[in-house]
Amino acid sequence: MLNALPYVQKIMNNGASGYLLKTTGKDELRSAIKLVANGTNYICSELSLNMLSNTMSSVAARNEKVEQTGLSKREIEVLTLIAEGFTNAEIADKLFTSKRTIETHRQNILEKTGAKNTANLIKYAISHKIINIEAAE
Predict the structure, then answer these.
(1) Residue 19 DSSP SS3
(2) Are residues 94 and 100 in contact, defined by beta-carbon separation less than 8 angstroms?
């Protein structure tokens, strides 16, 4: 019934096999029942389109941040993970790369931003809206 993505994610994470809106048509309802009965998860087409649209908006916002800051997409990913408190080794694991590569990215980020340390780097990231402190909480 609710079409807010956080509700859908929570319900699916708690074991639901499918999610339909009450505006879903009969044909889609039949298809969803068959798919779920055969073990496939299902989210109605309207929600799927909303999720795709949100993803595309997120990518566009990330590209805009790259242009505004002069940091590469990978550097923004690393900076975001630094802000979340991950160590270089943990970031390397998450991004499937070496710790040394992350150290290089971190050094490049410091040079490009003019930051002297991690705290100064986080201040830069917040002031340039690279990270959202509300989302981090």
Answers:
(1) strand
(2) no
Whether the per-residue pLDDT at 56 is higher than 70: the answer is: no
Domain, as residue range, for 58: 1-67
Give the integer Cα–Cα distance in Å for 136 and 116.
22
Residues 82 and 56 reside in one and the same domain: no
Residue 136 confidence (pLDDT) above 50 = no
CA 136, 74, 72, 114 dihedral sign is positive
CB count within 10 Å of CB 136 equals 12
Which residue has 């940091």 as its token pair? 71
Nearest by Cα to 69 from 130, 122, 131, 135: 130
The pLDDT of residue 78: 92
Same domain, 63 and 76: no
One-letter identity of residue 108: N
Q: Nearest-CA neighbor of 71 among 100, 134, 114?
A: 114
> 114 phi and psi, to 5 degrees?
75, 15
Residues 1 and 21 sit within 8 Å (Cβ to Cβ):
yes
The SS3 call for residue 47 is helix
